[in-house]
Amino acid sequence: MSSDLEIPTIVLSKEQLLDLPLFKYLQHPAIMDIFKPMTIDDLLELALDLESWKAPEHFQKMCSYKFIGYDQKNRPIWVCKLGDYTVKDVINRGEVELFERYFWQAILAVVKSIVAKSTEENPSQQAVCIVDADDVSNYRKFMHGPSE
Fold first, then answer.
1. Which of 33, 75, 119, 136 matches a 20 to 30 Å C-alpha distance to 111?
2. Mean pLDDT along residues 109-113
3. Per-residue model confidence as pLDDT tens digits over 81-91
């Protein structure tokens, strides 16, 4: 992830992290639905691990994300730039699990940018994501593995 602005870094113990708004937000039913097979402890371990994990560089070329600031409603704004790689490429390389980690790292960064503002500052507790797909030559091929 590249960013001109700083997103808070977690440098706390497990116990301290459990009390943070970030972790409470991650326990929201909508988020937990995404992480269905995970327990709260599994989610906590993943969040801590993703803080220091470095994604392969080619993932950043495939799908980079960048925090660019807050809008007038204090919602964080993120730009996601899609490259001309396909999901099939990730599958063929055997990197599905690594790409999932990259995806969760992006989700964690977005969540952190939301909770960096209090509910009084950002009552919607939402983020804005702008997707730049200019470099995708065939969007259907990008998203659908079996497509040629």
1. 136
2. 86
3. 887 667 778 88
